[in-house]
Amino acid sequence: MLSETLVKLLVCADDKESLLYIESENALFNPRTRRLYRIENGIPVMLIDQSTIVSEEEAARLSALPHRVTGTGQ
């Protein structure tokens, strides 16, 4: 689980916009680019070259899961 402070600060390394924090998947997801960032041992791996581009079907599945929006900055 990520701290609330970290959730408020995190944005996508690619487009610098908000992400979906999907706690059940232990991941951060950008629905605009379909880029998935994994969280390892409570630490988000925010490197573009270590992220994954998911299929449209997987993007739809991830977007439908309960999530919180990151990058609110507050």
Would you write up a description of this structure?
The chain has a single domain (4-69), classed as N-terminal domain of TfIIb. 20% of the residues lie in helices and 26% in strands. The chain has two helices and six strands, in the order H-E-E-E-E-E-H-E. Strands 1, 2, 3, 4, 5 and 6 form a six-stranded antiparallel beta sheet that branches.
Question: What's the topology here?
Answer:
Blueprint: H1 4-9, E1 20-22, E2 27-30, E3 35-40, E4 43-44, E5 52-53, H2 56-64, E6 68-69
Antiparallel strand pairs: 1-2, 1-6, 2-3, 3-4, 3-5
Short characterization:
By secondary structure, this protein is of the alpha+beta class. Helices cover 20% and strands 26% of the residues.
What structural keywords apply?
six-stranded antiparallel β-sheet, single chain, N-terminal domain of TfIIb, 74 residues
